TrEMBL record:
Annotated protein name in UniProt: coproporphyrinogen oxidase
Species of provenance: Smittium simulii
Presence of keyword Protein transport: no
GO BP field: protoporphyrinogen IX biosynthetic process
Pfam families: Coprogen_oxidas (PF01218)
Length: 422
């Protein structure tokens, strides 16, 4: 092993310097350590203290608010919620396409062709606007043809969406032999003195039928349909039209009564009727109240609207103009109502009452409605489209009762006694 031996003289000179360097290093090390706080010295975690302080401040603030500060009025809170809901609906309304085609006064095209174009245009327009209001899913477009190639239809259906439990906008253009049941129905209505016994007839019909069942019980169900019908003798080589007529109407079926909604719906229909004949609205309103009556319940299906059948008392062109205007006025009559009500709050009890009322809707359609019977008795008719009008869900309760002076009772009072709305 090799050793380095420093001379004593050199060692004596270096030792004081080493001691001084060691002392300076010790002082630097002590000065670089952080100062320990009081809590740390006492063994308390500062983070715990901060969390406790924050919780205490929150409790004090909450207690101060609860005991000493003024609270917002619950009625004001609900009012503000309604304003937000209405604003949402109104914003959707501004997005709707209300640019409808105008009636062509100069057209010489046969009514059959014009009616077909009209129902297709109205279907397309209405489906577009309902999709804007719903804003979650598109309609299902189902085009179908009769097996005998004597007609076609387009069924547009929206189910289980955010706004609509079920909405259907159906168009059908069909021809074929008139069944005995249909013929007897026409005779019972004294539709035409030109219909003979022991003669076979063929029919041609074009129509649009719409039923909308919203999810929200505060939003009303609605129905409308407009159609044109022609009858010819089967053995007539010239196929002259024996008789023809227009039929249709629109009616509102709320589960909860908002009188301003009823007034708006009826006034819109009246305004459109008055453009053509001021006798139309009162006459067709009375027809509607009588037609949509459920005898075994002694009440009407809804708060009415207009209804007419076998309308052929003036030139076809004038009647078609009336049908044209009534069809497109439906947008104005109904869409603002659904926009206003579709986001309202409701309870489980409200929903159950809606289901009870939809049970009444089913009863009328299957037992009393002539249109449903006509479709089911038509050979080659499409049952899926005919029963489109039925809701997805309904409810029947044994001896169901409602509280006196309730909102439900208010509706029933109107359904048992006809009212004038416009």
């Amino acid at each position: 092993m090799i050793r380095f031996i420093l001379p004593k003289k050199h060692f004596a000179h270096t030792l004081p310097k080493l001691r001084a360097a060691t002392l300076r290093s010790s002082r630097y090390s002590q000065s670089s350590k952080p100062n320990r706080g009081f809590l740390e010295i006492q063994g308390i975690n500062p983070g715990v203290v901060m969390s406790f302080s924050f919780a205490a401040a929150t409790i004090i603030a909450s207690a101060s608010y609860y005991f000493f500060m003024d609270k917002p009025d619950p009625a004001l809170i609900e009012y503000n919620k309604k304003l937000v809901q209405i604003d949402m609906g109104e914003r959707r309304l501004t997005e709707l396409d209300m640019n409808f085609p105008s009636f062509d006064e100069e057209s010489t095209e046969p009514i059959k062709g014009r009616m077909e174009k009209f129902v297709l245009a109205l279907q397309k327009s209405l489906v577009k606007n309902l999709e804007i209001l719903d804003n979650t899913k598109p309609f299902f477009w189902d085009r179908w043809e009769r097996e005998d190639s004597k007609g076609y239809g387009i069924s547009c259906i929206l189910q289980d969406s955010k706004i609509f439990e079920k909405a259907g906008v159906n168009v059908s253009i069909m021809q074929g032999p008139l069944s005995k049941q249909q013929l007897e129905s026409m005779k019972s209505r004294k539709q035409s003195n030109t219909i003979k016994d022991n003669v076979d007839y063929d029919f041609w019909v074009a129509g649009i039928s719409t039923v909308i069942h919203p999810v929200n019980p505060m939003a009303p169900t609605v129905h409308f349909n407009y159609r044109y019908f022609e009858l010819t003798e089967r053995d007539d080589p010239e196929q002259k039209v024996v008789t023809s007529w227009f039929g249709g109407g629109a009616d509102l079926t709320p589960s909860y009564l908002f009188e301003e909604d009823c007034a708006h719906f009826h006034q819109t229909l009246k305004d459109s009727c008055d453009k053509h004949d001021q006798s139309f609205y009162p006459k067709f309103k009375k027809n509607c109240d009588e037609y949509f009556f459920i005898p075994h319940r002694n009440e009407t299906r809804g708060i009415g609207g207009i209804f007419f059948d076998d309308l052929n008392d003036r030139p076809k062109k004038d009647l078609f103009h009336f049908i044209f205007d009534m069809g497109f006025s439906f947008h104005t009559a109904y869409l603002p109502l659904i926009a206003k009500r579709m986001n309202m709050s409701y309870t489980k009890e409200n929903k159950e009452w809606q289901q009870i009322r939809r049970g009444r809707y089913v009863e009328f359609n299957l037992v009393n409605d002539r249109g449903t019977k006509f479709g089911l008795h038509t050979k080659g008719g499409r049952t899926e489209s005919i029963l489109m009008s039925l809701p997805l869900t309904a409810r029947w309760e044994y001896k169901h009762s409602i509280p006196l002076n309730s909102s439900e009772q208010k509706l029933l009072d109107v359904l048992k006694t006809s009212r004038e709305w416009a």
